[in-house]
Amino acid sequence: MQHAIVRSGDLGNRWDARFHIALDQVRDRVGTLRETVTADQARERLGALPLSVLAPLAVLKTERGPGLKRAEADRVISAYPHLALAIMERNLRPAVEAIRAEISERQEALARLVAISETAIVTLEANLSPEERDVPRRVADADAEFAEPGDPETDTDADEPTAPRF
């Protein structure tokens, strides 16, 4: 069973034990953060994190019920920026591991999408008619037919660029 010593000055409008236990566990760090990080900086750092890693902040929410919704996380971060930052620092390893797992899942999904696109390209190329396969060669032939001698943009036989003609 966890316990915390609650000072009368800490009560404010929060009488719930889990809040005061969380505060008691990081009280010294909150004091240090107040001296080194502004409340706006703490809010900015935490607000940019995905909800999936903010689960440790659920101890600070006032609503009952499981989990932490984005609106609840935003209220907690806004009301208790230094306390929220201290709690996240204390729970950094699980947050980093969650982000790494998410990155790994997204890389695997990307690899699957690339494989699908490669299959689609092969399928499209296999379904091209002989005339459609011949289009790149015909475009190159047409470019060569209309090329002006000495023009580096259209003359495919020009070895050296020539001065522009006016």
Description:
This protein is an all-alpha fold and 166 residues long. Among the domains are: 8-90, no CATH class; 127-157, no CATH class. The chain contains eight helices and no strands. The longest helix has 35 residues, at 92-126.
| Structural class label | mainly alpha
- What is the N-to-C order of secondary-structure elements (H for helix, E for strand)? HHHHHHHH
Which residues form runs of ≥5 with pLDDT under 50? Answer: none
What radius of gyration results from the CA coordinates? 31 Å
Rounded to the nearest angstrom, the distance between the terminal CA atoms is 90 Å
Largest sheet: none
Helix content: 55-70%
Number of helices: 8
Shape: elongated
Q: How many E-type strands?
A: 0
Mean pLDDT: 79
Strand content: under 5%
Describe this structure in a few short sentences.
With 166 residues, the chain is an all-alpha fold. It contains 8 helices and no strands.
Offer a few descriptive terms.
8 helices, 0% strand
Write the layout of secondary structure elements.
Layout: H1 8-11, H2 17-36, H3 39-47, H4 70-79, H5 81-90, H6 92-126, H7 130-133, H8 135-145
Helix pairs in contact: 2-5, 3-4, 3-5, 4-5
